Amino acid sequence: METLSIYAPKLVTSREYIAPGHRACSGCGEVLAVRYVCKALGRNTIISNATGCMEIISTPLPQTSWEVPWIHTLFENASAVASGIESGIKALKRKHGYTKQVKVVAMGGDGGTADIGLQSLSGALERGHDFLYVCYDNEAYMNTGIQRSSETPFGASTTTAPAGKDSMGQHTWKKNMAAIAAAHNIPYVATSCSSYPFDIMSKVEKAVRVKGPSYIHILSVCPTGWRCPSNQTIKMGRLAVETGIFPMYEIEDGKYKLNIDLPVLRPVDDYLKLQGRFRHLTKDSIAEIQAKVVEEYNKVRHLAGLKKVK
Amino acid sequence: MAMKHVGIESSLAIAEAIRLANVDVIAAYPITPQTHIVEGLAEMVADGKLDAEYIPVESEHSAMSSCLGSSAVGARTFTATASQGLILMHEVLLVAASLRLPIVMTVANRALSGPLNIWGDHSDAMITRDSGWIQIFVENGQEAFDQVICSFYIAEHPDVLLPTIINLDGFHVSHVIEPIEMLDQKAVDGFLPPYKRSITLDPDNPVTMGCFAMPNLYTESRKALDTALRDSKKVIYEVWKKYGALTGRHYKAVEKYKVENADTLLVTMGSYSENAMDAIDKMQEEGKKVGLVRVRLWRPFPYDEVIEALSGVKNVIVLDRAISLGGPAPVCSEIRAALYSCKERPQVASIVGGLGGRDISPPDFEKLVETGLEHIKSGKTLETVMFGVRE
After folding, report:
1. Which CATH architecture has domain B4-247?
2. Do B55 and A73 touch (CB under 8 A)?
3. What digits encode the pLDDT tens for the residues B190-200?
4. How far is A202 from chain B (nearest CA, A)?
5. Phi-psi region of A73 (alpha: psi -120 to 50; beta: other; left: phi over 0)
6. Which pTM value belongs to this model?
7. B254-386 under CATH 3.40.50.920, yes or no
């Protein structure tokens, strides 16, 4: 965590668990995030994946990019499938001499996590299964063509909440999934971003070390849906963090820790103006977003015991 | 083999069968009239009588989803549901079949909303018809106990690997206390092989389960599943034969009752068959040439056995405990399809009755047969008769 701003690829395993040759769009932040997650997880992992981009780009029958055991069944049930995997292994260990130490991981996008899959996620967190849930959040239903989700940010234009003469696009604020996960009193919750490989990897390592459920919410830049150049993925994620729009923090046993402490935030316009999904925004709505971002960022700072920023 | 008779509620006898099958994972959500089964199991786990993981999920959708996960790692897996619960898990059922995961489920058949009704009929089972599961209907608690034991053998057989539903009528079977002949643990262990799956989610042999299929492969994967389901009949019959040798209780896909010399055959499925048998006894005493055919195996559908049982007879009267709104009643539709290929086709009357827990007593069955025969005489056999409906 302390080496967050230094990228030292030699420290990272060269072993890949999601093989190249998949069908992700160029500049996909989601597959990047998942790649780092898998590097940190290692081979003794079973993944339950929700329907979405990740499943479509990686598993067209009879091909697969996955080099760890992986199962996809439906859109809204990745956590319930993971519950079954975890319980099955527990029973096999107790009754049938199974000795492998397996990390059970469920994954889904923002739709599969915050919308259609929220119930099964909540159930699995509440029941206390020993598993990690990873949400790779690209802020809309990108797989079906950029429709709004409850994670779509205020003011973004999507195909089901488009900006128009009478609409500024999304008129609700992004759902706070990390807080919802934390409300289940689970031992580990964190946010991260596809532009911060070491942050993702160290958080995944931490998450799988804890006993019980853990949740990591990863902002994953989607150049296709955000309407920005595909060579700007890393920059866009960093701007989301540096503007305070997406604070990176951990909640360990209920205690908040802000991982990147920004005494001064960059103006949100630095981030918004680079993305086509925000291009219709007026000065007034940008000012409204700026005020809300500072307010929300300060809430996290307060929980982490830090002073407010302006 | 020594077996003990126990006076026990059918639901608890089912729970006992699950315990004897040494199930590894149970994931379930309560719903009437299935609840006693999973309550019974929860109690066994709590008392240390059954060593299993019990996942008290937050919905039936998650119940079946958890079953997918546990079955995919190679754990013997069971759940139970009914009615709305079954249709809430419906999309998951199709995946269980396509991933060839041998989950066993008991369904205490119940009507569907609306209006809300907690009592028995076959509406839930009929909506599940095309899900790719092996589906068996039982008539009483003894049969429920027996078929649950058999179903693990069938589902997990390497030539089958298909999920299996045991349908039992809500209340009329689930809540009835009967003298049931239980097998002991030694007998079940000797009969039922352990669940050994060659392909599991295993880090040492990583596999991908649940790829998506483009139009160039989807048809082939559906055909493969259909073939597996049709071919499962052979194993089902083998397992029933072995079970018969062990217990003296012999089960067939289609059962015939007093069909000799009958020119009219009534066709039933599930627990109402027992009332129908009483009615047949009385009608035959009165010299009426009426017999009974009971369908036990619903999927894969036993076309050959149905044709063998029904062809050559003059009249067939089929009772469905489900309505297909705007179309032919489901069981009758299959029977008609089977008989159409016969040279001499019987006349077929379709009767829908016993919906939402409405009883059909033995005297009612006598009326039902008369109604069917009048209907055939009227020549309007394409129409379905609603039995006992007040208009």
Report:
1. 3-Layer(aba) Sandwich (3.40)
2. no
3. 999 999 988 99
4. 22
5. alpha
6. 0.97
7. yes
